[in-house]
User: Fold these one by one.
Assistant:
Number 1:
Amino acid sequence: IVLTQSPATLSSSLGERVTLFCGAGRTLSTNYLAWYQQKRGLAPKLIIYDASTRAAGVPDRFTGSGSGTDFTLTISRLEAEDSAVYFCQQYGSSPLITFGQGTRLEI
Amino acid sequence: EVQLLESGGGLVQAGGSLRLSCVGTGFTFSHFAMSWVRQAPGTGLEWVSAISGSTGTTYYADSVKGRFTISRDNSKDTLYLEMDNLRAEDTALYYCAKVVAVGLLYFDHWGQGSLVTVSS
C-alpha cells in the first residue's frame, strides 16, 4: 500500500492549528495507521497509533483521525517544539509495513 | 526505561557484508517482536525487516529479501541484522525498533541508529 502525505512542507505560527494528511492507495480495513514525529538529528517518536490513539505522554494537542484511505493528524496550539518531520505508517496490509514520505512542519 | 543501542555500522564496499547489533534493555526482550527500519540521508523511513519474539518468525522488505538476515539472541537481549551483497542504495542510518506486538507492527521505541555507508 502506497501512503501519500501532503503537504510536503507546511509553515505555520505559534498557537495556530495545522492538519497533515496521509492518503492510502488502498483501504486500510483495520485502521492500522500510526504517526511519528522526527526532530532533526533524532530518532522517530511514536505519537499516534490505530489512527486515533495517542501514545503515552503525547499531549492532547495532537489528534489523529480518519479511516479507509484518508487519515489526518491535527496539531493544535502549535509550540516551537512541534517543528519536525511527521511520518505516517500503515501496519495492517500487504506489504507488511509502509511509510509515507513525510511532511516537514516549520513553526 | 526502554533503551535500544545499535552498533556495527561503518563503511563497506559494494558487494561486501556487515552485521548490525542492537541491545535492548528496560523490557523483557524475548516477549516482543523487533524490527529494523532505515533512513537514507535526507529521505524518509523504509522498513527493512522484523522478527517475532519467541518463535523467531522473520519478515523482509522486498528490497532486501535474499541479501539481509534478521536474527535474535534472547539470552543476550540482542537483535542482529546480517547484511550481505551490499549495494550503494543500502547506504542509510539503520534504526532498531521495538514492535508493540506481532500483528500490531508499529514501533513504540527506537534506537539512535547505526550508520551504514556502502561505497561503489
Number 2:
Amino acid sequence: KAGVTQTPRYLIKTRGQQVTLSCSPISGHRSVSWYQQTPGQGLQFLFEYFSETQRNKGNFPGRFSGRQFSNSRSEMNVSTLELGDSALYLCASSLAGQGQAGNTIYFGEGSWLTVV
Amino acid sequence: QQQVKQSPQSLIVQKGGISIINCAYENTAFDYFPWYQQFPGKGPALLIAIRPDVSEKKEGRFTISFNKSAKQFSLHIMDSQPGDSATYFCAASIGSSNTGKLIFGQGTTLQVKP
C-alpha cells in the first residue's frame, strides 16, 4: 500500500509569490491534515480536511489555505509568501471519522519550501 | 491549555542505555497520546501510542508510561541503539477517532553513542 505522497519535495520561491503543495493520502483515507515544521516552532497543525470540507483549523493567517478533492487528494496554498514561511510542510492522512476505533495518523515526507 | 511540553530538548545516551523523554500537558480533554520518531529528511512515523485508561504500554524496546493525575507521560527506550538516533515527538489529541489534529511537543533529539 502506497504511503502519503507529497509533491514537490523541494522548492524555492521569492517573497511575495504564492505556492501550491500537493498531497495524495493513503488509499481509503478521507482525512488529510497539513502541518508546518520549523526549527523554532516545531510541528504546528495548519488544517484538516475530511470529505472535501475543512474540519479543523490551526492558528495560521488567512494566507494559508487548502482544499480537498473528491478523490481525497489535497492541496495547500500559501499566498504572499514571507521569509518566515520557509519550512517543511507535512501532509498526513488517516481514517479519522470513518467509524474506526482508534486512529493512526500517517505522515508524508514533506515539501521543503524555501522563501528568498 | 493546548500545549504539550516536552523535555529534554536533546539527549545523549550510550549504546545499551535507557533513553527517557518526558511530556506534560494541561488539557484533560486529551484522550490519545502518540509518540512519533523522525529521521532527517523523513516525515514523522508513529512509534507507539497510549490512551489515558492505561498506565503503561510496551512494544518491544519502547514503553510509554502514563500518569493521568500528574498529566504527564514519558517514553522509555530500553537497550538504546545507534539506529535509534532521531528526533522524537510526543503529541496529544482530542477525540482521536474523529480528528487528524495533533498537538505536538517541541521534540527531543536523541543521539545514541556506540
